[in-house]
Write a structure and sequence with these properties.
Jelly Rolls, 5-stranded antiparallel β-sheet, globular
Length: 149
């Protein structure tokens, strides 16, 4: 019997420019799906403690207030019905730093979260103004593997 090799984990950076992202503007005073990433066939994402997340959010005119907006990330099944919160809700001030290793937001998970093909990672926002997705951006640094996980 031949031994089965474990999948190799490679660094992966997810941004709003990924071809598997759909975006929609955020609605004022409601949690809104700003960016939805569906994991493609043949790939899996592994979210782990220490993965980093940052985003920049704008409403119609300018950057939102540091203390008015909130961000969270959900892992959803293919139907979108079953949801697991994997980050946040965090105040916007906490997630807007892209550079400093001391300030950048990090995921804190009890155990790794496997996101399988066809499942979703969704960046959600809440603010007192409507978020303009086309003028906003994010970066999630994590790992991916070739399926199966």
């Amino acid at each position: 019997m031949q031994a089965v090799e474990a999948p190799t984990k490679v660094p992966f950076t997810l941004t709003q420019d990924d071809g598997n992202i759909t975006e929609a503007d955020g609605t004022a005073n409601l949690w809104s799906d700003l960016w939805k990433y569906q994991v493609p066939e043949g790939t899996g994402i592994i979210l782990e403690t220490g993965n980093t997340f940052a985003c920049y959010l704008e409403d119609a005119a300018a950057e939102i207030g540091d203390d008015t907006g909130y961000v969270k990330i959900e892992h959803r099944d293919p139907s979108g019905q079953d949801k697991i919160n994997v980050f946040g809700a965090a105040i916007y001030l906490r997630v807007k730093d892209f550079q400093s290793q001391y300030k950048i937001a990090k995921l804190r998970l009890d155990k790794p979260v496997m996101v399988y093909p066809k499942q979703w990672l969704v960046v959600m926002v809440y603010d007192d103004g409507a978020i303009d997705a086309s003028d906003s951006y994010f970066e999630l640094k994590t790992s991916k593997v070739a399926s199966p996980l």
